[in-house]
Protein backbone atom coordinates (compact mmCIF):
# COMPACT_ATOMS: atom_id res chain seq x y z
CA UNK A 1 0.00 0.00 0.00
CA UNK A 2 1.54 3.20 -1.07
CA UNK A 3 -0.10 6.47 -0.18
CA UNK A 4 0.62 9.21 -2.57
CA UNK A 5 0.03 12.72 -1.34
CA UNK A 6 -2.16 14.62 -3.72
CA UNK A 7 -0.28 17.29 -5.60
CA UNK A 8 -0.73 20.74 -4.24
CA UNK A 9 -3.17 22.72 -6.31
CA UNK A 10 -1.34 24.95 -8.67
CA UNK A 11 -2.02 28.53 -7.77
CA UNK A 12 -1.36 30.32 -10.95
CA UNK A 13 -3.92 33.05 -10.52
CA UNK A 14 -2.67 36.57 -9.98
CA UNK A 15 -3.16 37.90 -6.50
CA UNK A 16 -4.47 41.24 -7.67
CA UNK A 17 -6.72 41.75 -10.61
CA UNK A 18 -5.22 43.77 -13.38
CA UNK A 19 -6.37 47.39 -13.55
CA UNK A 20 -7.73 46.73 -17.00
CA UNK A 21 -10.63 44.77 -15.51
CA UNK A 22 -11.55 47.75 -13.35
CA UNK A 23 -11.47 50.08 -16.30
CA UNK A 24 -13.67 47.70 -18.24
CA UNK A 25 -16.30 47.99 -15.56
CA UNK A 26 -16.41 51.77 -15.75
CA UNK A 27 -19.09 53.06 -18.04
CA UNK A 28 -19.21 56.55 -19.41
CA UNK A 29 -22.55 58.24 -19.18
CA UNK A 30 -23.84 61.73 -19.69
CA UNK A 31 -24.40 63.70 -16.54
CA UNK A 32 -28.16 64.33 -16.31
CA UNK A 33 -27.51 67.80 -14.95
CA UNK A 34 -24.86 69.27 -17.25
CA UNK A 35 -24.54 66.63 -19.94
CA UNK A 36 -20.83 66.18 -19.43
CA UNK A 37 -19.34 62.76 -19.93
CA UNK A 38 -18.80 61.21 -16.55
CA UNK A 39 -17.74 57.85 -15.24
CA UNK A 40 -20.48 55.59 -14.02
CA UNK A 41 -18.51 53.46 -11.63
CA UNK A 42 -18.32 52.72 -7.92
CA UNK A 43 -15.46 55.19 -7.83
CA UNK A 44 -17.88 57.94 -8.73
CA UNK A 45 -19.95 58.59 -5.62
CA UNK A 46 -22.14 61.07 -7.51
CA UNK A 47 -23.09 58.77 -10.35
CA UNK A 48 -24.84 59.19 -12.61
CA UNK A 49 -23.93 62.81 -12.02
CA UNK A 50 -20.41 64.10 -12.64
CA UNK A 51 -20.01 65.96 -9.39
CA UNK A 52 -21.65 66.81 -6.11
CA UNK A 53 -22.66 70.15 -7.56
CA UNK A 54 -24.63 68.56 -10.35
CA UNK A 55 -26.16 66.05 -7.99
CA UNK A 56 -27.13 68.78 -5.55
CA UNK A 57 -28.35 71.05 -8.33
CA UNK A 58 -30.72 68.43 -9.62
CA UNK A 59 -32.01 67.69 -6.17
CA UNK A 60 -32.29 71.39 -5.40
CA UNK A 61 -34.34 72.00 -8.51
CA UNK A 62 -36.60 69.15 -7.56
CA UNK A 63 -36.97 70.48 -4.04
CA UNK A 64 -37.64 74.02 -5.27
CA UNK A 65 -40.29 72.65 -7.55
CA UNK A 66 -42.05 71.26 -4.54
CA UNK A 67 -41.65 74.46 -2.57
CA UNK A 68 -42.90 76.51 -5.46
CA UNK A 69 -46.21 74.76 -5.53
CA UNK A 70 -48.65 77.42 -4.46
CA UNK A 71 -50.21 76.17 -1.31
CA UNK A 72 -53.31 78.09 -0.53
CA UNK A 73 -54.11 78.09 3.13
CA UNK A 74 -57.08 75.88 3.22
CA UNK A 75 -59.85 77.40 5.24
CA UNK A 76 -61.29 73.95 5.57
CA UNK A 77 -58.40 72.93 7.73
CA UNK A 78 -59.67 72.46 11.23
CA UNK A 79 -58.04 74.84 13.63
CA UNK A 80 -57.17 73.53 17.02
ZN1 LIG B 1 -22.57 67.37 -14.33
Automatic annotation (TrEMBL):
Any one Pfam family match given in the protein's UniProt record, by short name: YacG
InterPro entries the UniProt entry points to: DNA_gyrase_inhibitor_YacG, Znf_NHR/GATA
Region annotated Disordered, chain positions: 1-22
Keywords: Metal-binding, Zinc
Cofactor note text: Binds 1 zinc ion.
UniProt-annotated binding residues for Zn(2+): 31, 34, 50, 54
Gene3D superfamilies (alphabetical): Erythroid Transcription Factor GATA-1, subunit A
Keyword Thylakoid tagged: no
Cofactor (UniProt): Zn(2+)
Keyword Zinc listed: yes
Family stated for the protein in its record: Belongs to the DNA gyrase inhibitor YacG family.
Subunit structure of this chain's protein: Interacts with GyrB.
Function comment: Inhibits all the catalytic activities of DNA gyrase by preventing its interaction with DNA. Acts by binding directly to the C-terminal domain of GyrB, which probably disrupts DNA binding by the gyrase.
Classification via HAMAP family: DNA_gyrase_inhibitor_YacG
Protein's UniProt name: DNA gyrase inhibitor YacG
Organism: Ideonella azotifigens
Organism taxonomic ancestry: Bacteria, Pseudomonadati, Pseudomonadota, Betaproteobacteria, Burkholderiales
Amino acid sequence: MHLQAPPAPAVNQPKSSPPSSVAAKAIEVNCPACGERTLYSPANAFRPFCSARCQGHDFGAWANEGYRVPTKPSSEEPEP
